[in-house]
Every structure is written in structure tokens, then in C-alpha cells.
Automatic annotation (TrEMBL):
<dbReference type="InterPro" id="IPR029058">
    <property type="entry name" value="AB_hydrolase_fold"/>
</dbReference>
<protein>
    <submittedName>
        <fullName>Alpha/beta hydrolase family protein</fullName>
    </submittedName>
</protein>
<dbReference type="GO" id="GO:0016787">
    <property type="term" value="F:hydrolase activity"/>
</dbReference>
<feature type="signal peptide">
    <location>
        <begin position="1"/>
        <end position="18"/>
    </location>
</feature>
<keyword id="KW-0732">Signal</keyword>
<keyword id="KW-0378">Hydrolase</keyword>
Length: 299
């Protein structure tokens, strides 16, 4: 069930946005709205949504933050993608940011303790949180405000594990008759990727013939702790794609920034990373939007 969009507690980074030409000190309108998305198990997720004016040609992008992170620091990346024409959703996953409570039997709520969160919670992020976020985008799709069939996932650190795991589920979700329900993820962006998190591994994606063929951008700091994982994932994808193509694998990129930083720190310190993400989405998905036919999900 989706709750009506509303203005909740502001993201800490919201005040960093200003509209061009605004008077100093004047109240500025945010370029995104804060929405509440309720999962099937009753957890209320806070998310930022950047609407697009491209209608059915708008590429939806979902940014999946790292473990212990939240949406706020990724608002500048969301804005940059939005300026390129994308509709961007950045949720706080359960136990993070503004998504800290869960319902308990008998009524009332309790707070998540991230220190006690394990594999079962990660599974719930996949089957409850991300599925509910997709349901939110599905509603936007059926209002002709975006094209869900061109969904792009941007994962950061542990969020890369979630992105690849969920992409496998999406590509293996069966349609019901002529009603399309899955195979919507069309590209992956992995920033400072981890290979394993709470028992979930990116390895699963390498066994799925659909997911390892998706256009993929991998970014990491050259001297960062995630550089080895980024190289390993890239080499594995190159090897897999060599089975079906000759020469350089199309739609696969590895960018190693000259930095020791990871995740949001890398994005903040090196603006070229954000530029690379936007260019990748423009080149691989936006430029080819006609290949990803808009499909109503209400039929």
C-alpha cells in the first residue's frame, strides 16, 4: 500500500538546494518532494522523489544507499540525474534515516536497532522495501509520468549488493498473461561496490544470463578499499560477456577515480563521478529510450 505523498521531516541536505536566480535568504522551493511509502509488512519508508517533465520518456532511477546511510547525501546526484530528464527515487531503507520504526503486535511501533539487523532484515529490504518502491514507480508509470520499463538502479557500497540481488529477482519475476510485472531493470551503476553483505553476494548476478548483460557502470576510488572489488566485478563481467560478443564489451564501463574515498565521500570530493553517472545513463538508456517501450501496468 502506498501512502499519499506528503512533506515529512526534511532531509538534512535539503537546504543545500537553491533555485537559479533566487534572492539570497529567500525561501527556495525544493526540486523534489518527500514521500511516504508503506511496505506490505507495515514499515513506513521515507523517500525523496524528483519528478520529471518528460512524461512517458522519463527514465526512472532508484538510488540505493549504503548500510548505515540514508537518502539525504545523494540528493545532489538525484538532482543531476533529474536535470538530465530522469525521474529519481531515493528511499531510506528500513532502519535507516527517516525509516526507523516498525509496527508491533497489539499496536504501536518500535525502533529498528541497526546493530541487531541481520540477513532477515536485508531480505525484507529486497522483498518489502524495494518492491514497494517499485510499486510507487508503477503508479507513476500508469499516470504516464515515467517509463518503468527503463528502470536504472544506482547502488552505493552495500547498496550494490542489494541492487544486483534485486535485479535478478526483477528479471525472474513472471508476467501474468500479457501483464508485465518484471524485467524492468535496464541498467546498473555500482559505486564503491561491496561483494558481500550479511550473506548476500553479487555472485548471484553472475549466474543470471539477463543481469550480467545489462549496461553496467562501475566506479570506485583507485586507492579505496573497494577498488579490488570493483576490478573483480568488472573482470568477471568482461569474461561473461566475451561468451556472447567479440571485442570490447559494449555497455560495460569501469572508472577508477584518483582518490582513496568511497561512496558519498567520493561523490562529494570528485564531481566528475556524478558527471560520469549522468553521462552513462544518458548514453545507455535515455538515448535508447525507444527500445524500451512504455507499458501500462494496470491492464
Amino acid at each position: 500500500m502506498l501512502l499519499a505523498a506528503g512533506l515529512l521531516t526534511c532531509f538534512s541536505a535539503a537546504n543545500s538546494f537553491a533555485q537559479p536566480g533566487g534572492r539570497p535568504g529567500a525561501k527556495q522551493e525544493r526540486p523534489f518532494e518527500v514521500v511516504a511509502i508503506e511496505t506490505r509488512d507495515g514499515v513506513r519508508l521515507r523517500a525523496a522523489f524528483f519528478a520529471s517533465d518528460k512524461g512517458k520518456d522519463a527514465v526512472p532511477v532508484m538510488i540505493i544507499h549504503e548500510w548505515g546511510g540514508q537518502a539525504g547525501p545523494y540528493l545532489p546526484l538525484g538532482l543531476a540525474l533529474n536535470k538530465a530528464g530522469c525521474a529519481v527515487l531515493i528511499p531510506d531503507l528500513r532502519g535507516h534515516g527517516g525509516s526507523m520504526t516498525y509496527p508491533v503486535p497489539g499496536g504501536g511501533t518500535e525502533e529498528f536497532d541497526i546493530g541487531d539487523m541481520g540477513p532477515a532484515h536485508v531480505k525484507a529490504m529486497l522483498t518489502q522495501d524495494l518492491e514497494s518502491c517499485k510499486a510507487f514507480l508503477k503508479e507513476k508509470n500508469d499516470k504516464e509520468e515515467l517509463n518503468l520499463n527503463a528502470l536504472t538502479l544506482v547502488g552505493i557500497k552495500e547498496g550494490c549488493v542489494l541492487s544486483m540481488e534485486w535485479a535478478v529477482s526483477d528479471w525472474n519475476f513472471p508476467s501474468i498473461g500479457s501483464r508485465k510485472q518484471g524485467q524492468d531493470v535496464k541498467a546498473l551503476v555500482l559505486i564503491s561496490p561491496e561483494e558481500i553483505h550479511k550473506g548476500f553476494r553479487v555472485e548471484k548476478a553472475f549466474r543470471d544470463r539477463f543481469v550480467w548483460r545489462l549496461p553496467t557502470l562501475i566506479v570506485a576510488g583507485k586507492a579505496s578499499p573497494e577498488a579490488d572489488a570493483a576490478n573483480k566485478i568488472y573482470r568477471r563481467l568482461v569474461k561473461l560477456r566475451a561468451r556472447v560478443s567479440r571485442g570490447d564489451p559494449e555497455g560495460l564501463e569501469l572508472e577508477l577515480a584518483n582518490a582513496k574515498l568511497s561512496g558519498v565521500a567520493l561523490l562529494k570530493a570528485d564531481p566528475s563521478v556524478t558527471g560520469s553517472v549522468v553521462k552513462f545513463v544518458e548514453d545507455e538508456i535515455i538515448a535508447n529510450i525507444l527500445q524500451h517501450r512504455w507499458v501500462s501496468r494496470s491492464e
